[in-house]
Task: structure prediction
Amino acid sequence: MNHWLSQPEEVPMPFTNFFGYCASIVFLLVASLSLAATTPLALTNLRCEYKSNPVGIDIPQPRLSWELVSTERGTAQTAYQIRVAVSAANFAKHKLLWDSGKQASDASIQVVYQGPVLQTGQRYYWEVQVSDNRGRTSAWSEPAYWEMGLLQSSDWKARWITPNMQEDSAQSNPAPMLRRVFAGKTNIASARLYVSAMGLYQLELNGKRVGDQYFTPGWTAYDFRYQYQTYDVTAQLNPGKNCLGALLGDGWFRGFMASGHNRNSYGTKLALLAQLVITYKDGQQQVIGTDENWKATTGPILMSDIYNGETYDARLERTGWSDAAYDDKDWKGVTLLDSPKVKLVAPEGPPVRAIEEIKPVKVIKTPGGDTVLDMGQNMVGWVRFHLTAPAGTTVTLRHAEVLDKNGNLYTENLGMAKQTIRYTTKGQGVETFEPHFTFQGFRYVAVDGWPGEPPLDAFTGVVVHSAIEPAGTFETSNAMLNKLQHNIVWGQKGNFLDVPTDSPQRDERLGWTGDAEVFARTACFNHDSAAFYTKWLNDVALDQQDDGAVPDVIPNVLSHRTRKGDSASVG
Result:
């Protein structure tokens, strides 16, 4: 008999314990009733377009959601009231932009804002109050906010730029580096940086990385739309000279895709679009955008490709390249490009982030002579490592999901994808490295060229995926069933990297529509995937064929062709 159905042997309760037991029950009942009577109906988890306090959205009528908190079972909302203002202080002054009035409704998700037209770059604060089926009315929630992005094409003052470099479009090229020095003033109130790219980008401002997102601007139906991200960089600006820098990577735009032989699916030139808007306390604004005043060069990233990995030579690093004081006299110029005939849209889905870290569990010596790290878990992301070695030492990491029947690294299933990291040291003490524009699917990592035996504590697995929040947990008394659920969750983590892919390791990693459809219910059971699917389904609508057929993969890189059409939108 299963252990959860077995009945324990009855044991007589001592007489003295009986009264103690009753007293405990009475105490708990009284405490519970007292708590219910004194704890008000409350509100939590206020969200706008599935996000908490989003900065840079472009939905003209955002949808608002909240959750109720009550100590009484069966509590249900019967009415709500939403108020919106341009400042949190305006609520107390009753200076409102919009007041929904008390609405008899149990709706608490996706309630549409219906106030005046929203303005570019403006932050809006909102609060909500509800009534319940017990006649109680909550206090007003703590104010939340959303901030609009650039809503009109005319809001973009920046120009698309591409570096003046000779490249071989048939192969991976060194990653471009771009920079621009500008002067700021004192009394900065706020600063927003809006950025997109043809390819992938990483930003630095005054020597520090901007944001914590990866693989920006993301993979969309590039024939129709590019995403742009909005960053609050107020704290990174100086009152005097500043420097904005950008790294560019091939990514899905022009890197190897599909079979691994195809390149340049959407274009042959990488490009950057960046616009910094500084607002001063006197209300004046300063706009610094990508233009002909930027400079460009290459540096230590000799090759970076989603399938094939990254080659990095630390001896070629340009120390301080994103600082204003850096000497860029040997850098080249840039070329202005005509704006592509696509829409620039704010991200609807969650960003890709480094979500967690794991440590390798052991080092394996394979029969073939390889030194292999076992991460103990199949994962998607990369390995961060640190070492001390003479200048010119090259360490190579090769990634695989499994070992073959003989215990050697198995890579035949990768197809053309190399999944290889090569790092060459500069020989100046402890060096730490992690790649920039690539990710691997793996459990095992073959380490070649390491000086001596590689110690476990020199390596960390960085798990990367779209920042989907767990919807809950599921656990049973059956260890095998728990392991199955564990594998399903990790399978979702590994394949939800901006698009719902079918595999994160071989020369594919595409958004197969059949796989995504079959897995959608499970995905939403395990994680809050609404925003993730909203973004991807918009690309499904855009890449849908003229006869109504849905392509095998979205974005449709397998049968890519330039099309003209209007943007579509789903919720």
Summary: The CA atoms of residues 260 and 281 lie 52 Å apart. The longest strand covers residues 371-387. Helices lie at 15-38, 251-254, 479-495, 513-526, 530-543.
